[in-house]
């Protein structure tokens, strides 16, 4: 993951982390030191009311209940970003419902 992140930064690409993704991963305490270092070099995107509604609509279209996954796809589609994931099954199904041809970077 660090090598991939370094590659993005070398290309002057600042990764975006949707706030719900951070909430899903964050547990606090000293064990989060590595995650904190990684996040210091990312942009954490807050979720606005408009975005929350768009995520809800996409969750309905895709019949996918995990709003974190849906938030990732909604943001990637809006920004025209790639998605970094270790499991692309859900991401691809949601992207199909959004009519977004997602680029996946596997980790």
The stretches of 5 or more residues where confidence is low (pLDDT under 50) are: none
The best one-word shape is globular
Which structural class fits the helix and strand makeup?
A: mainly alpha
What separation lies between the terminal Cα atoms?
A: 6 Å
CATH topology: Rossmann fold
What is the CATH homologous superfamily assignment?
5'-nuclease
Mean pLDDT: 94
Task: Offer a quick outline of the entry.
By secondary structure, the protein is mainly α. It has six helices and four strands, in the order αβααβααβαβ.
Question: How would you describe the overall organization of this protein?
Answer:
This protein is mainly alpha-helical and 107 residues long. It has one domain: 5'-nuclease (Rossmann fold, 3-Layer(aba) Sandwich), CATH 3.40.50. The chain is 56% helix and 11% strand. The chain is built from 6 helices and 4 strands, in the order αβααβααβαβ. It has helices at residues 2-10, 19-25, 33-39, 49-62, 67-79, 89-98; strands at residues 16-18, 43-45, 83-85, 104-106. A two-stranded parallel ribbon has the order 1-2. The protein has a two-stranded parallel ribbon with strand order 3-4. α4 (49-62) packs across α5 and α5 (67-79) packs across α6. The chain is globular. The chain starts with a helix and ends with a strand. The mean pLDDT is 94.
């Amino acid at each position: 993951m660090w090598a991939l992140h370094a590659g993005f930064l070398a290309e002057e690409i600042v990764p975006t982390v949707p706030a719900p993704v951070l909430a899903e991963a964050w547990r606090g305490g000293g064990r989060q030191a590595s995650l904190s270092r990684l996040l210091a070099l990312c942009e954490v995107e807050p979720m606005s009311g408009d975005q929350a509604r768009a995520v809800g609509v996409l969750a309905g279209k895709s019949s996918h209940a995990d709003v974190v996954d849906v938030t990732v796809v909604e943001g990637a589609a809006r920004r025209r970003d790639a998605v970094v994931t270790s499991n692309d099954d859900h991401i691809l199904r949601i992207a199909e419902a959004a009519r977004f041809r997602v680029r996946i970077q596997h980790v």
